[in-house]
Amino acid sequence: MARRRSRVRSRARRRRAGGGRWVWVVAGVAVALAVAPVVVDLVSSGWVVPLAVVAVLVALGGAAMLVARHFGDVYRQEALRRCGVDRLDHRRFEGLSGELLRRDGFRQVKVVGGAGDRGVDVLGVAPDGTPYALQCKYYTRKVGPGDVRDFVGALQARPYRDHRGVLVTSHSLTAQAAQTARDHDVIVIDRDRLADWLLGAYRLGPGSRSPAWLARLRRGTSGETPAAL
Q: What is the pLDDT of residue 115?
């Protein structure tokens, strides 16, 4: 009896599966019948070729964006590796930030990090005369909102009240920390933007900014990034 019941169940399952396939077939036929008049209208109106051209252009544009993003990521990783960012310590990370400021045309660049720095590590004056105060976070973890709030508090001190605040980190920020930085108009240079800064695709102060892949092409494949100090 058990075998007979199992055979009955098997036949029932096959009937249900067959019925399910017929449902999909009927649905496919219905969709084809619904779309057919639209296709006929497009063919008769001569819109097929222009639409095909537009579709190809959109596909090529999407592919180009994906390729550019991929190469941008590759160039960022290479810039960080060549500069040895992951082998630095906090003091040399501050020195690297100062060197990048000088490369961008900043004047009076000073690395002031250390005891008594009041929460600011690097100072500099942009080519347009705007003073900047940088705090450098050489972290192997994400920067939290408390770190950003501490820096905002440091910028309220008398020596730095007129300075533009910049937080530079070798890692990234938590979502809450990034929001805190936006709320207080603090410029954030996280790991990805640091790589762009090394490539010359990003710069502080006035000046043009370019995608990482374009900056790399302009510099050439053998273009040098600032050496780690």
A: 62
